[in-house]
Amino acid sequence: MLGRFPVALRLSRGLLRGSSARRGLSAMAGGGEEGRLADFFEYMERLRNYERSGVPRGAGTDSDDGFDLGRMRRLLRRLGDPHTHFPAVHIAGTKGKGSTAAFLSNIMREQGYNVGCYSSPHLLTIRERISVGNDGGPVPVGLLSDLFDQAKEAIDESIESENGALTHFEAGLGGARDATNVIQSTELAASVITTVGKEHLAALGGSLQSIAIAKSGIIKQGRPVVIGGPFSADIEQIIRDRAFLTQSPVISACDPGIKSITKCIGWDNGKPYQRCDISINISDDVPLSIELCDVNLQLLGDHQCQNAVTASCTALCLRNLGWDISDASIQAGLEETQLPGRSQFLTQEEALVLGLDGASTVLIDGAHTEASAKALSNVIETVRLEGPLALVVGMANDKEHLAFAEQLLVGSRPDVVLLTEASIAGGASRAMPAPSLKEIWMSAARDLGINCVDIGTISGTETPEHIANLATSSSSFAGKPTVMIGCQDKTPFSCDLIRAASQLILESRGRGDASPGLVCVTGSLHVVATVLQHLERH
């Protein structure tokens, strides 16, 4: 039997590596209120920022090249070791950690627990990285300002003693050398490893195996670990070997005793949801059991169903440890969860703000890896009817551009692809130029045997007549359906491109075709954030 935490203790995700468990866009506040944080923002801007410059090679490995967790421990000691005052669930993984964290946080909130969550990156305000309390929203301006005032002296002393080595955001790689990995086994309720993929290869050792070793660094002595997956046999074995060394029970969300199925896709207030059944019956070292029927998940796709299973396994693991968590809270928490910028369908009112006339639905998703492109393609195919599809894509220059393009071309078969330049943290030096992206997508289409035509540059401000002529002349080649591929001119991404994409797909199918169009904005959370910022302003 696993040792139990007293149920009176409160679960905190204050030291998790994932995305925050906010419940919806209403929680994303910004605006003039944040003027009170001017001193805080100015202070943070003076620190070295690896999110902008890129993480150094080997920074996330458990080696001499890895980040020094000692400086974070020393800073926390100056602050009174606040992370030791509550138990934590520590989540790592290449993909899925944000959704899993959101699911789990909402499950605990439904049960009445006061949940804290640390997350990255943010979309509109840095306050999104910290959520506290029962509503899951960003930390209030006043609270963050007060905390900064209280901590500033200790931070100043730490920066001086560390010769300026403290940074804006330490590693952020969710493994052995991530700054959140200061958690010891005495504070850890459970570890969770969602997936292992090829993102941050250089910083994590150069191979999937080295990434798995880095991720498994969050497993602690005697504390259970939930693994999401599915993993290849060699990757799962690396994680299990680490768990064996630390005598940590392993709970697999891909256990043969787990069944999940999506029964149908429904629509509520113009937004889709997937109705799932989830059955968990595990009788190994940590017995878990639950039957959930007709779970309406707002997060779409097979990968989100798997993330929901992983979160449910974690909640059941905590219940096994003595936490009071009902089946009803698990189902309600899963159903309540949504994540801005991740498979987010805009409302009709929001689409109108972008200048669309209601003929196209807009989907925004921060996918930027091969695996996330495959998952996004699955979402598109799940909800898409017979209408045309346009992709608006902007990416950082360190991503797998060709593999990303291939996944979306093969899976979703778009009618239009418009490439743009994302406003990446770190500036133009980290953004992939739109013309370069266009050449990659043209090459990917040709290699896949997909007819494509280069429609040149699109600013987004063209007249409807110009768009109509362009669509008419480019929508077919030798009588065969053709993907129109163009790019924005030298200006960074603007929401005008979404309107142009919608006009192109509708004109390409002809006004007689009443099938609703779908415009998907993807490739970077920075592009997605631009859309959300536009909606906030208007």
TrEMBL record:
Keywords (A to Z) from UniProt: ATP-binding, Ligase, Magnesium, Metal-binding, Nucleotide-binding
Matching InterPro entries: Folylpolyglutamate_synth, Folylpolyglutamate_synth_CS, Mur-like_cat_sf, Mur_ligase_C_dom_sf, Mur_ligase_cen
Keyword Nucleotide-binding: yes
Domain (Mur ligase central) ranges: 91-314
UniProt xrefs under Gene3D superfamilies: Mur ligase, C-terminal domain, Mur-like, catalytic domain
Any one Gene Ontology BP term: folic acid-containing compound biosynthetic process
GO molecular function, one term: acid-amino acid ligase activity
Family: Belongs to the folylpolyglutamate synthase family.
PANTHER family reported for this sequence: DIHYDROFOLATE SYNTHETASE-RELATED, FOLYLPOLYGLUTAMATE SYNTHASE-RELATED
Protein name from the UniProt record: Mur ligase central domain-containing protein
Species the sequence originates in: Urochloa decumbens
